[in-house]
Amino acid sequence: MRRAAMLVVMALVAPGWAAAQNSVYGLIGIGFPGEPLAVRARSLGGGIGALDPTSALNPATVAGLGRLVAGGAAGTTLRRYTAGDSTVSGLRETRFPYGMFGGRIPSTPLSFAVSFSTYAERTYDVTTTGTQVLRGDTLEVTDRVASDGAVTDFRGALAFRPWPRLLVGGAFHLLGGSSRLTVGRTFSSSDYSPYVERSQLVFSGTGVSAGVVLLPTGAIELAASARVDGDLETKSGTLGAGSVRLPVTLSGGVRLTPVPGLSLSSTAVRRSWSRAQPDLLAPSRAFDTWEIGSGIELSRPRARGATLPIRVGYRYRQLPFSNVATQATESVFTGGTGAVLAGGRASLDASVERFHRSGGGADERGWYFSLGVILIP
Amino acid sequence: MKRRAVALLALASAAGLACQDIISAPGVCPELCPQGEIRVRDTVLTGVEPVGSYSGYLLPHEAYQVQVVGPGGPAESRSLLVFIPFAATYPGSDTTVKDSILQTDSLRVKLNIVRRNAGVSGLTLALHEIPITVDSATTFGDMTPYFQDSTLVATLPVPDSLVKDTVTATFPAAALRHFGPDSLQVGIGVRISSPDPAFVTLASDSIAIAARITRFVQLDSSTGTTRATRSDSSGLRFKTFVVDPSGVPPPMGLMVGGTTGARSFVKLNLPGSIVDSTLVVRATLLVPPAQPIFGAPGDTSLLRVVALGSDFGPKSPVADTAYGGSARVPVGGSDTVAIEITNILLLWRGNPAVPRTVMLQVEPEAASINIVELPAAGSGTQAVVRVTYALPFRLPGR
User: Fold this and answer.
1) Is A307 exposed, middle or buried (0-12, 13-18, 19+ CB in 10 A)?
2) Between residues 214 and 273 of chain A, which touch chain B (CB distance below 8 Å)?
3) Is the pLDDT of residue B46 over 80?
4) Measured between CB atoms, does A201 come within 8 Å of chain B?
5) Distance from chain centroid for Cα B306
6) How far apart are CA B393 and CA B166, in angstroms?
7) Looking at beta carbons, which residues of chain A come within 8 Å of B37?
8) Per-residue pLDDT for A240 more than 80?
């Protein structure tokens, strides 16, 4: 069984890891913002995000890792969107948006976790047409801008339990990642040579976060965290290609366990994305965002002798970037389950999400399927 | 449990294999345009530095075309054709006749016209007998005595409808004063007689050679009882054309073309910030002629720009000729000549070893009287390069 679990992990990781689910809104700003959530948290609408030690939102939760834990996730997006007169369907992407490794540091009261998650997804391939006046002639031009990559958030977190009912943690975030950018333009006149510019964009940045988890009673868990990021620097080759201010993130969460086997959780996140506004090119606009997710988990249901938890949730969030005056939003209904394998040494979580993003000149709907594995060596 | 593990493995593998993304989509601007800016700019760059004009790469007798220009234009030119000598005996393989030539009845000259000016009617070619000793040093003045009525062998009307074809003139052998047993070689000079300024260009092509002469002779039959008529022909041994120098204006700038096949070298001192650091999508060399383009009335010239592979002065080798551009320019025109040199700048991009000097030539070289003159160094109006280029994609960020 252990071998099977390892094979599952290898199958997940083998193609490499990249970014989270994609969106037509990823064309704008620094990309489509990712979520540092494990699959279980996703299936709960992100409601447990601020309290989940396998997610990377609140570093204090790392203190809840009793043993060494390793996990990862893969996800596939199927989506379609309508923008203006265009309807595009059949879009599909598979990504590996999340991985973590953590546990107790022997002989110390500390726990640690290192993880990667998608900060912003930047994969798209878009063709547009327009006109340009050159040498007195109005030419039709066809532009292609394709990007393949993401801004990745690498987090190293330390946490401890000063008291049994309090978890405190802090983390250092290293933003990295890259994207292959292909830009080309063709002209309606053969006098002008079509051109293609290929470059490798490398992202860098830093941030810090800190958080607490309070356990006033056995049935109530409260969490809060804050994260401050610097600027996201972009380099093309050895040349600087600009920097964008990143938001301050505040989050808070609560989980209630009124009866054993039933928990209700909710997490709210506020990000000050409007800080990026001066760094964007017109007509792009940056908005502060709220993100609120809630979920219910029934952890006692059994099937064929095994526990199969039922998780449902709902998440609402505002999207930070738009090329028009209105801010886009996202509504997601989620569901999922999980299975404990190998005598408790591994678990597999599955989640399905139905999302609807609207505003900002587009309407996008789709499904996101994710599969995660947690190993306890 | 094992079956479940296998199913999970299959599920995870399927997720991994589903990595074939489908992400291409049309954009909708401005709502959903990719963040960033494609910046294509257009500018005019000075820095075109005339280096020099050099001649003699090719001379008219080496060119594969010869141009005959009639009077009434800026300068007259005449073609000189010397054919390969005929054999003293009939060279044919016909065994029904003896090879001893009893009599040469007539000769026929066939000329292959590959270009002429349109709209001129009544164009006639006059064929004169010229010395077979003409060579590359022969001048227009040298040949003037041989283009008199006394040397006229035949006249050859060129149909007005003829654009590109062969024309023939047949004349008695007696019309050639120097064709006989001592010299079985023919020299023919061609001049134009036309009410309007005109030109024709003779050349070999895939169908015919530039000129050919056919001899019609009488022979005895092999039995000696009857006479038979046979013919044989020969091609050109030497061809050239000579131009009246009094009609050629004195040079005011850097000469390109003409009967000396002049080439001009021009250095393009263009900023590296554009040539090396941007993507050039179009570059045009704009050359204002120093004086109206000289040449045969109604003719056009192909002005070609080629990048040099190395810069050794007049004997510099050119780069791959694919890296060049050309423009057809009309004789008499004084408008600025625009020649696309985009691929030259693409050759130069990030390649400092290649000299940023170009060579201008008229094609075909030394095959016409046509001359394009570039402004000389220090003249008020200079050539410029108009460049359309794409700056690196501008990403968001300060």
Assistant:
1) middle
2) 232, 234, 236, 241-244
3) yes
4) yes
5) 14
6) 58
7) 281
8) no
Chain A contacts of B28, Cβ < 8 Å? Answer: 83-86, 128, 361-362
Query: In whole numbers, what is the pLDDT of chain B averaged over residues?
Result: 88
Interval A244-255: pLDDT, tens: 999 999 999 999
Residue the block writes with tokens 């201010």? A245
Give per-residue pLDDT as tens, B185-228: 999 999 999 889 999 999 877 777 889 999 999 998 888 788 88
Per CB-CB distance under 8 Å, the chain A contacts of B40 are 132, 134, 185
- With contact defined as beta carbons under 8 Å apart, do B59 and B260 qualify? yes
Instruction: For residues A274 and A291, give the distance between their C-alpha atoms in angstroms, rounded to a whole number.
Output: 15
pLDDT at A13 over 50: no
> What's the CA gap between B78 and B387, in Å, rounded?
43
How many domains are contained in chain A?
A: 1
Query: Coil, strand, or helix at residue A36?
Result: coil
**Is the Cβ–Cβ distance between B142 and B129 less than 8 Å?**
no
In chain B, DSSP finds a helix count (H) and a strand count (E) of 4, 23
Pairing of strands B24-26, A124-134: parallel
Q: In this structure, are residues B362 and B257 in contact, taking their beta carbons and an 8 Å threshold? A: yes
Instruction: Answer for the pair A291, A304: CB distance below 8 angstroms, yes or no.
Output: no
User: What is the rounded CA–CA span in Å between residue B244 and residue B192?
Assistant: 13
Phi, psi of B301, rounded to the nearest 5 degrees: -125, 150
Instruction: Provide the residue type at B62 as one letter.
Output: E
Burial of A228 (0-12, 13-18, 19+ CB in 10 A): middle
Positive or negative CA dihedral for B57, B59, B65, B66?
A: positive
Provide the residue range defining the domain that includes A36.
Answer: 2-375
In chain A, the largest separation of any two C-alpha atoms, in whole Å, equals 77
Give tens-digit pLDDT for A21-53. Answer: 578 888 888 899 999 999 999 999 999 999 999
* pLDDT score at B15: 52
The partner residues of B140 in beta bridges, in order of sequence, read none
Task: In whole angstroms, give the CA distance from residue B47 to residue A2.
Answer: 73
Picking from A22, A203, A34, A88, the residue whose alpha carbon sits closest to that of residue B21 is A22
Spell B45-65 as b/e; 16+ CB within 10 A means b. Answer: beebebbebbbebbbbbebeb
Structure tokens at B300: 């056009």
pLDDT for position A303: 64
Stated pTM of the model: 0.78
Task: Report the Cα–Cα distance between both ends of chain B, in Å, rounded.
Answer: 57
Q: State whether residue A352 sits within 8 Å of chain B by CB.
A: no
Select from A9, A117, A112 the least CA-distant residue to A66: A112
Side chain identity at residue A338, one-letter code: G
Report how far apart the first and last C-alpha atoms of chain A are (Å, whole number).
Answer: 13
ipTM over 0.95: no
The verdict on a CB contact (< 8 Å) between A76 and B282 is no
Rounded Cα distance, B394 and A143, in Å: 14
- Please report the pLDDT score of residue A206 as a whole number: 96
**Chain A residues with CB-CB distance to B394 below 8 A:** 281
Q: Which of B201, B204, B192, B260 is nearest to B236 (CA)?
A: B204
Say which range, A13-17, A266-270, A328-332, B16-20, has the weakest mean pLDDT. Answer: A13-17
Distance of CA A75 to the CA centre of its chain: 11
Give all domains of chain B, ordered by start, each with its CATH number. 40-59+250-392 (2.60.120), 77-243 (no CATH)
What would the pLDDT profile of B299-356 be if each residue is shown by its tens digit? 999 999 999 988 888 888 888 878 889 999 999 999 999 999 999 999 998 888 889 9
Give the whole-angstrom CA distance, residue B275 versus residue B278: 6
DSSP state of B2: H
- Our CA-based measurement puts residue A55 at a distance from the nearest CA of chain B, in whole angstroms, of 21
CATH number of the domain at A356, please.
2.40.160.60
Q: Is the dihedral of CA A211, A216, A221, A222 positive or negative?
A: negative
